[in-house]
Amino acid sequence: MENSPQYLFLASGVKNGEGFWIVGVKNCDEIILEDNTLLDCHRKELIGNESAKDILFAINLNINNLINEIKSKNYLIEKPSMGISFDIPLDIMETIFDFWFDIYKKQEDWETCLGLLKVRKRISLTNLIESESLKGNSKKWAIKVENLHTYLPNSHINEKRNDPMWI
């Protein structure tokens, strides 16, 4: 069971009338199909358990970074009761999923990209790229990882401002 095959998947779902994306790991194809909260399975890859956990970690970190970036720029993004907001389009979710799944196959590139993703959690990679701090493959991968964080929703910018307490 330690490294038994698992399905890493990206699916859309609905619960109590609320839509969401979910990226997860299941040990059986039927379990995904039988889950009545899931509508469609957009990506499904059979891989080892440890690999699935590693890739799932990277995908979730990337999505969390993206959501934090969207919020920091004062865009509205819904927080569903489960899963990931439908405010992020399917093509963005698929791009993130595909990138991390594909890069995992090349261990050295995977380690570089994962390290850059962890740095991206704290700071934008743009300044490092533009300042020539990164060279060669690191710079190439930093550009790709940063591009996974560039989506902004069409929703209106959150206009709610906190009024000063003396007004």
What is the element layout, followed by pairings?
Blueprint: E1 5-15, E2 18-26, H1 29-34, E3 38-48, H2 49-72, H3 90-103, H4 107-122, H5 126-130, H6 136-147
Antiparallel strand pairs: 1-2, 1-3
Helix pairs in contact: 2-3, 2-4, 4-6
How many E strands? 3
Kindly report the spatial arrangement of strands forming the biggest sheet. 2-1-3
Overall SS class:
alpha+beta
**Series of H and E elements:** EEHEHHHHH
Total discrete domains = 1
Uncertain stretches of 5 or more adjacent residues: none
The helix content is 40-55%
Q: Describe the main β-sheet briefly.
A: 3 strands, antiparallel
Radius of gyration: 18 Å
Alpha-carbon distance between the two ends: 62 Å
Number of helices: 6
- The outline comes out as flat
Mean pLDDT over the residues? 88
Q: Can you walk through the features of this model?
A:
With 167 residues, this protein is of the alpha+beta class. It has one domain. Helix content is 46%, strand content 19%. It has six helices and three strands, in the order ββαβααααα. It has a three-stranded antiparallel beta sheet with strand order 2-1-3. α2 (49-72) crosses α3, α2 packs parallel to α4 (107-122) and α4 (107-122) crosses α6 (136-147).
